[in-house]
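User: Modeling request: complex.
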Amino acid sequence: MITAGIDSGIKTTKVVILNDDKIIAQRLVLTGWEPQQAGESALTAALADARLSRADLARLVATGAGRQAFPLAQSNVTEITADARALAFLHPTVRTVIDVGAEEARALKCANGRVLDFAVNEKCAAGAGIFLETMARTLEVTLDEMSALALQATGTATLNSQCAVFAESEVVSLIHAQTPIAEIVRAAHDAIAGRVASLARRVGGEPEIALVGGIARNVGFIDALARELGMEIIVPRDPEFIGALGAALMAGDPVSLRGAS
Amino acid sequence: MKNKIGYLCTYVPEEIIHAAGFLPVRIAPSTTPPTRADAHLQSYTCCLARSCLDQALAGRLNDLAGVVFAHTCDTMQGLADIWRESFPNLFVETVVGPVALNSPHAQKYLVAELRRFVAALEQHFDVRVTEDALRASIRIYNTRRRALADFYARRAEFSAVQWFNVMNKALTTPPEAISDRRSATSNQQSAIENQKSKIGVVLVGATIDEPTLPQILDDLGARIVADDFCNGARYFDTLVAEEGDPIEAIAARELTRATCPCKHRALDDRAERLLKLVKDNRADGVIFYHKKFCDPHAWDYPPLAAALDREKIPHLLLEVEQVAPVGQTRVRVEAFLEMLSEG
Amino acid sequence: MSERRYKKLKTAPQLKKLLEQHYLAAKYFHLGKPIAWVTSGAPVEIVRALDIFPVYPENYGALCGARGASAAMCQVAEARVYSPDLCAYARSSVGMMSDAKHAPLGGLPRPDLLITCGNICGTVLKWYEAAARHYHAPLFILDTPFIHADDGEPTAHAIAYVAAQLEELIAFLEKQTRRKLSKEKLLATAMLSSEAVSLWCDVREFCRARPSPLNAPDLFLNMAPIVTLRGTKECAQFYRALKEEIAERVARQVSALPEEKYRLVWDNIAIWHHLYRFYNHFVDYGACFVTDTYTGGWAMRMNDQGDPIHAFARTYTQVFLNQSLRVRVRDMADLITRFDVDGFVMHSNRSCKPYSVGQYDIRRIVTEQTGKPGLVIEADHSDPRSYDDETIRARIQTFMEGLR
Amino acid sequence: MENMPQEFWRWKEYNWHAPDIAWRNAKIITAGVDVGSVSTQAVVMVDGKLFAYANRRTGSSSPDSARRAMDCALEETDLALDKIHYVVGTGYGRVNVPFAHKTMTEIACHARGANFLYGASVRTVLDMGGQDCKAIKIDAQGKVVNFLMNDKCAAGTGRGLEVIADLLQVPIEEMGELSLRVEKEPEPVSSTCVVFAKSEALGLLRKGWKKNDVLAAYSRAMAHRVAALLKRIGIEKEFVITGGIAKNSGIVTRLEKELGIVARKPDFDTQIAGAVGAALIAKKMKDER
Ligand SMILES: Nc1ncnc2c1ncn2[C@@H]1O[C@H](COP(=O)(O)OP(=O)(O)O)[C@@H](O)[C@H]1O
Ligand SMILES: Nc1ncnc2c1ncn2[C@@H]1O[C@H](COP(=O)(O)OP(=O)(O)O)[C@@H](O)[C@H]1O
Ligand code: SF4
Ligand code: SF4
Ligand code: SF4
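Assistant: Request completed. Predicted assembly structure:
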């Protein structure tokens, strides 16, 4: 059976197509202002990659912030539920999943693909991808460079502002104080790792811990989080596709969708 | 055996803990952002609660044999219970003192509550708190309070940062170490040069735990002429009577010392005290240094501000989280001082 | 405001009338009786027995929340330099004191007396101090020491302290009213109060039935008379009618929801400003709040052994918000088993620290003990400005997905 | 992926000078440099008259920004920096103005600047800048009587508006006008948080809102926050607005409506008020010495 999952994120839209339990195509596009259109184009592209047509799709499940925007999806689930499902498939021993997207960070405790407990950053915590993006812009480096820089630092600089926008000006004053860039980068990573870790602690995060979402591409962040939690962190392959994968898996297993709207 | 007991508020009777053979130390928030406490406390609780719990959870308070709370605000009340759940084997107690200090029954109740606390200490640690030990401890703490008051009287010779250091060190060191002004200010050199141009301010708040504001005041050439902090002048403004029943005497001090906004003695006693501080010390203005999400102080701010307005005393409100952001704080304070010196 | 999507109660008009009459009377027809502002946890029986007319600013706060007036009222207070982080009941009330233009029913009547009882929070002390300054009305503080004991029992000295203050309160009120408290009248009022409380307990117990005859908003709305009219004949009368109706619902297996698929417990004060909208998100999943910790807070039965003053002292010191986290865990776990629910939802209420601080731990421990999952939702009971429907809906969806 | 096709937040940088002032015979030449979190202005005054000014974006280094702004202001004049007798630095980067003799906070400078630019009858000044808003009460001499600043949240600041301009892809200069072009004034957004702005805006657009409506909802929320600040300090006539956001008609109009008071409209750039104040204070300091 061919199923698909679509994860309509704030920043990026991801599609995964499964043939039974095998991933046969995946695509990522920028969400932009028309989540529905982004979803359509990601889906079309992914289907084309797999040499399939719409008609071959048995079921489609949507997730992510824009999950309600897809009339073609049979149902939708939240990212948290989808993450749990995908991790059970990829790494059944994982008990805690941390998912950091562009504007939201989540931590969930799971077993057998079920969510046992979860926590999401409350408004204003600003402990999400956008925080790093803002820092990158201020420092005039790319996200990839940021991630590499963080690993080079040894220092002890800290950022105190919770607010991403103000952390930006803190960064400016650190620059003035001639703090090496690597140290500032590390401070920024530590700041959000601290906030993300407290989410994980709120759900009573136990090993093994997996990190998913776009930020899991960032080794500097993984390092900061591992240090903060004092645990090793598993990063699945293609971490930003986990939500879409979970949705696609749930599409193939309609029982699991009971209760979803 | 561990010989320190931590406490979170100056309404905790240090003398009793001391008489039981422990060194009472004030648990103060640190400057590192909390990452563990958020699993227990919501984002809308004050940073004092969050940071103190965070340090405990990070294992930085493992040398404490116990932690004692005093009933003050709703956050502390919740924190005490959370602490107990987080450290089930630790001695965690709350001295639930009276709120209505003006009640004719408050003294009797507090005495009974203090005796319950004594019994709890005795039972848990298998010690005896004798009257003689209590008397001795009272004398030691009174000596320290007098020394601090004496330092205070001469604080014009010291900078704001020195003032901060002296006060904060005092509440975490053995009381015997501070017996007179000199010992209070050891390692602190007098360092005031251009005294005459200085603007004098009174600081008001719950506690002051990190030196950003004093540093800014020093940089800008302002002087702290008086304060109303738990870990400032409110700590030593009243002594415990050295005669009579020691527990009764400790209770009597708690009921008569300068009130914190969690307690009630009279409707406007805090405003009256503040005006007196300003006038007696010829202050130019008042800086409220409040913690974000601290309800009791936020509640007292409007009436205190109104009282100052009536007397045309300028004031500034700073609401800070754990560490005051240097840039923002500096602009506010600097503009305030500019305003005072222009006026 | 969205519409309710579940069965209406026949007694609803009666409730509405009862409360309207109360507020009208408070404003215009208190017939020369002095007006006292009292907190929800104050021993109102004494006040009533002295023919003083009590009004409840907290209940009024809920009303302002439900009518969507709180935000505007709070802003008045904020313009008068009250912090937006303070309890919104109190904040809107302070706003009303200085400017009643946004206040429903033209605001509460001016108090002749103020009686605050600390058994619910520290806020009520500061709130009533503000009222005392504003109205120059005499303020009585009933200080009820917080109970940290695991068994929820107050210490003997705490009871003695409260009892002594109750005597003082009586003397204070007698002096203010120049009347003498009649022991018979106090007993009669206490009886009426007990009766209503006990009927309310019965109504709540009926919700153990499957399907539950009531959903949380019913409980919230029907709790109002227990708070504001406790100790009156009308109050007891109302609860008799309500009990009858619910008994009948249970007998005929009438469900509050179109279809009850899940049963949940609610913790903390209602989200008044989005009452139906919020709870409808659960109705969408067929989830019914069959019981809650909040309206149960006024289901305490009067301890009637011995001297009535001592009984009052004990009862009022033991109210649930004056109890430690352990007692709250115990009570929550008890509700979960007795009402046979699938999970619980905790409203982390920015306004109400005594109710909310500790919820994360309560949730963890309760789940460990009962195996039932709990959801924490951050909002505010009466300030709509910290309510975000989108985020809240996503949390609810995730939680419900996990309940299957 | 990170690069936006166009930077919508970028407002124009420019300079100006008075063609007919002869500085060579002047008694005193002073300057004010306002290094803000977002913008930097340099103002030169000759005997207390506006001579030249420039408005630039603040870069990542304050000293450079100050220098650049000053160079830009002097660019088309024949005046050189070393001929200026006294310079006062203000704004966030005030201590980093290398050629300043003295520093003053932007609060004092905006007060003084407003007093000069709008006249002595001004009593309440609202400075809406890049990182914070300040409500300032002043006397007839332009001295600060009382002031309040907003909390430590970027919502409702110029920087926040820039983020939103980028997000909605509307040039910042047109934002105000666009936000006023709505059929019906929408409800304000529930949270003005800049960090979560995108999810909030997306949600609204998904509900079928138009860009203008989203802008209107934001502007309204921001106006609301600023109004709260003004109400806290107690607004007195005459009321003026300085700083960059004063150019955003969408916010100004809504603010006026909410307060029920109209701000005096300027015939000069509101962003320079701080630097003007600094230059005036420089003159006063020099005079007194
Ligand atoms: N190569 C990279 N290096 C570092 N961070 C990255 C990289 N790619 C993406 N990110 C981060 O991932 C975030 C987007 O995550 P994603 O899970 O796609 O978000 P959403 O699902 O919310 O749209 C960005 O905000 C960015 O911080
Ligand atoms: N031409 C313009 N039209 C609309 N808004 C503008 C314009 N120029 C600047 N702004 C707004 O003003 C803000 C900068 O304000 P400004 O007072 O210069 O800040 P600061 O002095 O703190 O650096 C910008 O972030 C932008 O939002
Ligand atoms: S402080 Fe920053 S992150 Fe928080 S609400 Fe304000 S703008 Fe958003
Ligand atoms: S009194 Fe204020 S600062 Fe102290 S614990 Fe309570 S809320 Fe925090
Ligand atoms: S803080 Fe809580 S208990 Fe106290 S008045 Fe407010 S809502 Fe009621």
